């Protein structure tokens, strides 16, 4: 039975390999669409967080509202984000993804899923079952950690 340290090392190796592939896909997609990584990161943030204000985006990126606003203006010009009214306060503008940016993010996700598919296809059915069981256990334990207050 492997030690906790050796399990952590294997998990780290897997994380590095999958992150490297995912980041490669992100960089290529950003480049193919003429976006900086900051712009692409903003699209990802909006995808995961949903509509939010300039302040939230700037805060997440660690930049001033002015810098965030300038970057968002470029994304508006590219039809990747839109400004909309906050239904709770019409004076507040929210930033939302457009269909065009949703399609770009979908392409990125599909490229990573394709790589995962190739990886799965390289395994025997018994290896696939072993990985499936192990990852489901890992996901379950990760959810338990997330639910535990710090």
Structure characterization notes:
With 150 residues, the protein is mainly alpha-helical. It has one domain (4-147): Arc Repressor Mutant, subunit A (Orthogonal Bundle). The chain has helices spanning 4-32, 37-49, 54-61, 65-77, 99-121, 125-147, and strands at residues 81-86, 89-97. Strand 1 (81-86) and strand 2 form a beta hairpin. Helix 1 crosses helix 5 (99-121). The two termini are 29 Å apart.
Structure at a glance:
By secondary structure, this protein is mainly alpha-helical. It is built from 6 helices and 2 strands, in the order H-H-H-H-E-E-H-H.
Task: Lay out the secondary structure.
Elements: H1 4-32, H2 37-49, H3 54-61, H4 65-77, E1 81-86, E2 89-97, H5 99-121, H6 125-147
Total number of strands:
2
Radius of gyration: 19 Å
SSE pattern, N- to C-terminal:
HHHHEEHH
Spatial separation of the terminal alpha carbons: 29 Å
Shape: elongated
The percent of residues in helical segments reads: over 70%
| Spatial strand order of the main sheet | 1-2
Helical stretch tally: 6
Largest sheet: 2 strands, antiparallel
Q: What is the CATH topology?
A: Arc Repressor Mutant, subunit A
CATH class (first level) name: Mainly Alpha
User: Proportion of β residues?
Assistant: 5-15%
Mean pLDDT: 93
Q: How many domains comprise the coordinates? A: 1
- Structural class based on helices, strands and sheet pairing: mainly alpha
Structure characteristics:
10% strand, 6 helices, mainly alpha, 150 residues, Arc Repressor Mutant, subunit A, elongated
């Amino acid at each position: 039975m492997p030690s906790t340290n050796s399990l952590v090392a294997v998990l780290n190796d897997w994380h590095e390999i999958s992150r490297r592939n995912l980041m490669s896909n992100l960089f290529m997609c950003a480049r193919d669409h003429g976006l900086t990584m900051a712009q692409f990161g903003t699209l990802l943030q909006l995808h995961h967080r949903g509509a939010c204000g300039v302040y939230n985006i700037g805060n997440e990126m660690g930049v001033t509202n002015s810098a965030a606003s300038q970057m968002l203006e470029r994304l508006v010009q590219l039809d990747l984000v839109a400004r909309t009214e906050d239904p709770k306060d019409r004076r507040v503008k929210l930033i939302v993804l457009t269909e065009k940016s949703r399609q770009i993010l979908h392409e990125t996700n599909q490229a990573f899923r394709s790589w995962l598919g190739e990886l799965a296809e390289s395994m025997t059915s018994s290896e696939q079952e072993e990985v499936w069981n192990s990852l489901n256990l890992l996901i379950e334990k990760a959810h338990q950690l997330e639910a535990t207050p710090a």
